[in-house]
Amino acid sequence: MKKALFFILLTACCYTLNAQTNFNYHNEFEQKVFTGFLKNDISLGLELQLIADPSMSLDRFEYIKDNYSGLLTTLRSKKESFKNDGRFLSWMFYKVHRKALKNYQQYTSLASTIESGHYDCLSATSLYALLLKDLGYSPKLVETTYHIFLMVEVDSKQFLFESTDPINGFVESDNEIKKRLEDYSDENNGQLANSKKSYYQYNTSVNEKIGMVKLVGLQYYNEAVSHYNAQQLIPTIDLLEKASFFYHSDRITEFGLVLAQAIVNDDTLEEKAKQESINRVSGFLKSTKASLAVR
Known about the structure:
signal, globular, Transglutaminase-like superfamily protein, alpha+beta, disordered C terminus, single chain, C8orf32 fold, 7 strands
């Protein structure tokens, strides 16, 4: 069956990336920010990190922006009172966790995190990354197979933010940082070895530094996985197509092949709809040279 699937994918009509801008937008907010980004008139800030959320709206964004701005104002007002960046970053990490990160819940959007305090590693790390950038720092995001965390360097000193650890998530000891990094690698290998695929999970080891644009791709990817696990295949295509635009990776390729196989096996889809869906999946699987590379 895999050979047949690859034949379908390789012979399907596909888009070039330059033409791959006619996306199916799930709301007005996404279309406004996405098209603005394509025209280079939207900064890589809060708006862009929220566009993957299908339930986002222009009114909801204003509420979320107010919440975010209030948190940022609190942090800014305290920054100058600290004698050094290390002490401020430590205070900031735990202040944000106490104030904004209440309950861990997998596949939580950044919008829901800012609104309700539910969070996962992606949404919480995204929040920290945005706040750090707005405070004048340059966070370095690190993507692993099932996790994401960030590092901040100030005057050649490294600090690690582990957003899912409210007690000991701020790490400044060089030895402890080294141990944490080794633990992330071990967790990657262990979860891959023990993976049981009752639902979709990525099955290849990852340890990559990513920027804020690729972070948007991961927001879309998480939404795509959530919709796929809910057996909503067409919305999954929409989301994964946009994930690929922002961050075309092996993760996207593997999931795309799994998605294509699910489409082929879906008895509820007519043949025409199946072929159109396969064509779309083929399009973003073949789009290996993203125009975003020059941004």
